[in-house]
């Protein structure tokens, strides 16, 4: 007897078995000429060209006032449109055999998507190179830069690839962000069979309606980004601004605001599991209490600095006026901290108290992840440490251990316990472990050479420690992302450890962060794409190839674009204001963080200093999940095992920056999707929820991308909308009071 729809959606990890088709057509070939090349305009590239396009744009947006992230949904839609143009090419003769061998299939589409989305992530190494070119005298040569970018991008692939059997292949690691994009692929490529006509209709309607609607809140009527009756009722109170304002960046907490701009609500409200949303809500409520308590309790001199800010401030600042800390004035000619110059500047700088609280809770979240997964998911992770057992060490001496070219067949018991999606993948050759091991080894050696050739000041032993930390963090944060959809940012702990290992050198801290933090991010991208390939039934070797080629293309273009812009726009990038076309704000922020951690960690975070509790958050986080765990063991019916202290702790600092007016709307959409639809409309949920998500996300991304060039100045000239009550140009767009001390 089959399961009912309600039973199918009760367990989130099972949804991938019912929301997606569990079948495969091995005759579909992703290795076509048109996957790699495509005639567009006169001659351009399709897969490689889309990778070039996404890589170039991702790098350019690092130097723009407006930032856009090219989502997988956007790339999926644009690649499908380009493929449909190909239908007009003759299907017979020499041209037809190369460019139109058969109808465009979902495996070709998945391969293109993986390659282009890989290239669409701008390399963190490009930021390091840009900062070094702008603020430091020693600049690496072109070869070192390109090899540095490529090695830092693929190092995480090697580590994560060796962990794929643990945190990719099992059913429970389903990487929720893949469900909308996979639903879209199925909808686009099954329509000719008549199986997905209703889903396709939902997708087109959602895409079209949000495409038209987003012009209103994004351009014509920005007040719809944050409608708050408290801001409208009382426009002369900074207390109201701090609590209720949130439609502008760093304005306030946006409490009880309603947002009608889907760009800020985000598609994650539709696909993140209900447990993740629940823990996020708890963190949000605590975030409101903690931020307001710290600020109005004047902890860390909070009232002397802005409520929300990411800058450093001089100790001479007060509530009447904020003085930005002159970070370059405390460094010597070699870029190292000069304590005499620091004393002359008045001593160590201050942060906004809410930003300090954010760093503290991030540290708690990172270590809480370890404890939570060990307590609740040890059976899923313990095999990752099985190599340390005595039996495993004995196996190393056996010749069979080294014969990696001899594949071992899975037993019938192994097959019966496999994820049904993965079971269909057994007909394809896996990318062997030694491929990933070779990637790890080569990229590690190249990276080690590069840190010395680039005069980073980083020691070989620090490089090894950074890689070791990244390996541990990939395992735990990868498991967290696969189970909950929540990707934990680990940059603070990496920067902190790097600061104490090799203090006083901001440049060294940047390189330590590059190989420690960026490696984790790249590893998580590989894990997600390997799961996408599993859902799409794309052969593992094809997925591996697309990842590597996309990264190689992106590395070269990242460097070329970075070099061009830093040479031609140097003065603008170094200025505080920038222009409406170019801005160095992102690079300045990255450089500031490096100076804070790399140069001032001792003065700001050591015991007895102002922010001594910030690094202790790492210790507190280890113990944070224990009370709920022990209470769950005593009272299992209370459901306390659903509390994830890692997610809760991170969201206690959630509202530290950005547009905060969308939070209530985010939870309303999440409740409608993950509670109401799943519980009361399970058939509709399984059939349409993720297609709707893809349509809304794709339409939003496309129209925002277009408006960035047409209206917002990315093409050279901005076209502002006239000032009226729905577009408050002079102040905050939700009409809350502007902080007079910022003037």
UniProtKB/TrEMBL annotation:
Keywords: Membrane, Peptide transport, Protein transport, Transmembrane, Transmembrane helix, Transport. The chain crosses the membrane at residues 37-61, 68-89, 109-130, 142-160, 281-300, 355-378, 434-452, 459-479, 548-565, 613-631, 652-673, 688-712. It is found in: Membrane. One of its GO terms (biological process) is protein transport. Its main location: membrane. It is a multi-pass membrane protein. GO terms for molecular function: oligopeptide transmembrane transporter activity. It comes from the Eukaryota. GO terms for cellular component: membrane. Pfam families: OPT. InterPro entries: Oligpept_transpt (IPR004648), OPT (IPR004813). Belongs to the oligopeptide OPT transporter family. NCBIfam families: OPT_sfam. This is OPT superfamily oligopeptide transporter. It comes from Hyaloscypha bicolor E.
